[in-house]
Amino acid sequence: MFRDNESRCIVTERYKLIRYFQAGRCYKYPIDVNPVRFAQHTERAANTGKPRPYVQLFDVQNDPDQFNDIADKKENAAIVKSLSKKLYDWMASVGDPLLKGPLKTPYYERSMEAFRKSIQ
Q1: Which helix H or strand E contains 26, and what residues bound it?
Q2: In angstroms, what CA-CA distances link 34 with 39, 58, 65, 67, 84?
Q3: Distance of CA 89 to the CA centre of its chain
């Protein structure tokens, strides 16, 4: 499981491709965890120690629960490339701000405002 808001995905009948745009850590997401408490940071999960990949690919027909990332398998390189191109084209067509750089989230804006106030 990855915690961020800077990712995009494309889903076909067969595949789901996810592209991540911020570095981060991977967490072991227990099946029985409460997603609301996890999102609110009141329930934690262990860090896997692995860096976040830039891309994940899941075969949703054969792996509907999306447990097995197959993006790094050589035989899937053409699928990753094709879906990435479609995703990029869509992002460009809608003017996705991620193509211009990291997003300034409300949390970022509030933290910077507090930071600026703290040095005045």
Answers
A1: strand 25-27
A2: 9, 24, 17, 18, 32
A3: 18
Domain ranges for the chain: 7-118
CA dihedral of residues 43, 5, 67, 55 (deg, nearest 10): -140
Q: How many whole angstroms separate alpha carbon 35 and alpha carbon 39? A: 6
Question: How wide is the angle at C-alpha 50 spanned by C-alphas 97 and 15, nearest 5°?
Answer: 55
Closest CA to 83 of 1, 9, 27: 9
Nearest to 65 by CA among 9, 16, 3: 16
What kind of fold does domain 7-118 have according to CATH? Arylsulfatase, C-terminal domain (3.30.1120)
What global pTM score does this model have?
0.70
- Render pLDDT for 20-42 as a digit per residue (tens, 0 to 9): 887 665 666 566 677 777 677 67
